Amino acid sequence: MNDTTPVGHITRLLLDAGYRSVSSPLVIGGLKFDFPAALVGTETSPDLILIADTAFEQEERLVTKLEGVARALDVARSKRPLTVVIAGPRPSSANLETMSRVCRVLPTGTVLDKDAEGSLRNWLAVLLPLRLPEAHEPTADALEQFSKLGAGLDQEVADLVNPAKQGTRAVQLQLHQIIDDAVADAKEDGAA
To answer: How many other C-beta atoms lie within 10 A of the C-beta of residue 104?
Structure first.
């Protein structure tokens, strides 16, 4: 597969995420379906993912093929969710709606910025494993640095920073105290 094509980029990203490629043409219940690429997921994400390219295939033909695949999966009593990733020009709203009746549809759009990989990851995020940002500093160090800045903060905010070292519950109690004090002050001002 040529990785410089949109289908190649999508396929490589999904393979790197742990999906495995299915031979082409896709055969379900003895019927053959031709797609540029097809992948299946593992236990945690058992999707059957079909990749279509609307630059080389008419929308109506794609809709017909997807309806056929969905019907073949139903007849075969497959439990795999069906997802189609669309590379190329975005199909019309009517065709997208028709496709979405039989499968999850993920149009990828056109990459206009310099971060093509990031844009593609955003469009396919529902299929990819969650990547959490790495912490650069331990939380205690960050709180310590924030505490040093406390002199420039409002007193209520500074009062919340100090108990943060003791955990969530300490911050909640301090916040409740700040609110109670504000309500009591408001009542006193109203009575005067």
So the answer is: 15
